From TrEMBL:
Phylogenetic placement of the source organism: Bacteria, Bacillati, Actinomycetota, Actinomycetes, Kitasatosporales
Keywords, comma-separated and alphabetical: Membrane, Transmembrane, Transmembrane helix
Spans traversing the lipid bilayer: 12-29, 44-63, 84-105, 125-145, 157-182
Name recorded for this polypeptide: ABC transporter
Length: 184
């Protein structure tokens, strides 16, 4: 099964992707790109906010690669192998989060969970695209302004929560666990 994980599924592609995420986050720093908001005005979003998509695309690439006949007759359930690789990806993302920010690690975990749930009803391409749709959707509709005029996020926009938000972490872990249970 180790050969299957490395040659067919190509799980070796995930750690270099996380290294690219760290390099991109360091390179762009706090650079922002303007994003329109439905509540008015043009607000900015850090470029590092979009880097979790790279990890989701890498995982969905690995999940898409399969040999159906070999998986049906395998002694070791491939599902267990995939879940282990996905959990390891989340753990490695948190190790990388120490270098680039734990909000990036949380968003990788959240987008992986969303991708697994979408993959359940669609395919890997739709699963990867759903993460980008969530990020852009929360940027456009998930912002609000406090009475003092400072920008904040709405209660449902989890990717916009600060890295230290316990609520966002608990919801992310719950969605991730649900996604692992629901994945085929």
């Amino acid at each position: 099964m180790n050969r299957y994980a490395l040659t067919v599924r190509r799980w070796w592609a995930v750690p270099p992707t996380l290294a690219v995420i760290v390099a991109v986050c360091w390179a762009v720093g706090t650079s922002e790109v303007p994003i329109p908001s439905l509540v008015g005005g043009m607000d900015g979003a850090r470029l590092a906010y979009f880097t979790p998509i790279l990890a989701v695309v890498a995982v969905m690439y690995c999940m898409e690669r399969r040999l159906r006949e070999a998986e049906r007759t395998a002694v070791v359930p491939i599902r267990r192998l995939d879940h282990g690789a996905i959990i390891l990806t989340a753990a490695l993302a948190h190790a990388a989060g120490v270098l680039v920010g734990m909000d990036v690690a949380r968003n990788i975990t959240l987008l992986l969970a969303l991708a697994l749930l979408v993959r359940r009803v669609a395919n890997e391409a739709a699963a990867a695209a759903s993460g980008m749709a969530l990020l852009i959707g929360t940027l456009i509709t998930g912002r609000a302004y406090q009475p003092g005029g400072s920008a904040t996020h709405t209660w449902w926009a989890l990717p916009l929560y600060p890295a230290g938000s316990t609520t966002a972490w608990l919801i992310t872990v719950a969605v991730f666990a649900l996604a692992l249970l629901a994945s085929p």
